[in-house]
Amino acid sequence: MGKLLFYVFLFLLVSCDLNYVDNDYFIGNINVIEDSVSVKNVRSQSFAIEGVYNGPVFVYDSLLIYYPLNRTATSSYEIYNLKDLSLIGEFCGKGVGPNEIVAFTTISHFYKENGELKTLLYGANEKKLVEWNISKSLAKHTTVFDRIVSYDWDVDKHVTVYNKLFRLNTDTILAITPTVPLTLDQELVSLPLYEKRTIETNKQVKLYDIFHKYPENNGLNVHSSYNILPPERFLESFYCIKPDCSKMVQVMMFMPQINILDLQSGEVNGFRLNSSVNFSVFRKNIEKVNYCFTGVAVDDEFIYALYWGRKIKDDSDKKRSCIVYVFNWAGVLVNKIDLENYVNQIFLDEKNNILYGREYTSDYIYSYDLSV
Hints:
mainly beta, 5-stranded mixed sheet, 3 helices
């Protein structure tokens, strides 16, 4: 009986310590997910598109939009037809001429307005926010911007440019600013910013809080080749917005946790796969940090979170399959999907219920029919 009470006490002590550490960094509640749902095996079909090889892709219905990382590219985006894999055209010219931007951000999400497909892009060099009308661009075979708005990022104590922009309505966006080191030794790192801002006047409407403070680096030598993870990457994440723009999901790359932010109330809740890991891993056991969630896609019902679960700098199992954890928007784990391929980016074709996967430097794109 004495031993039983001892172990119960020890369990409660450890649990309290885990909660205490989490509460020190994360603002919302963290719910531990029981990883016991069945795994659905989905076979893939692979294909390659000539010219698409190095850089992220984005999928909407039968369109594949490619962001080439080739320095010689004269356009920021190329659009391909997924039905016949043909190049439709190049859009968003790079440069300093009329209707050109030196470098655009990557696409955060698509939306439709009056039946036309659009997205928001940001040109940091020019400090311009641009609404790209993809439908009109395809119809006219030239780049069509519906709006070009002067949009300075260096306001409201920002320390770096926006890297994610989600359009909420005709004059409001959700803008995300990433973390950056504030000192050379990365003892100080900025927190990511999550803001609701106006488009025309560039005013902050609401600031969302997800983290209290940034995890300490515990004196790591950030310039050492032995440092496996620079502190500025501790909170690195991927984001999607629910199609009705009521919620945002954040999946964390180095913590087995997704966070769901209610954009109306500002309430945030975390959902973690492994209860034995908390934010103290960054300051105490950096060598135990794994790659966790490396991509995300959503629809009205579900969140599709791509999970690796392998050690940093461990390429021994790079060719193994990846798992997609499927949550509903309440954070309940409802399914898992084995993709049978190694990918680090996923996109969902809601219309045809097809999930696409890709590894950035691979020639191949994989499609998974989720209706099978």
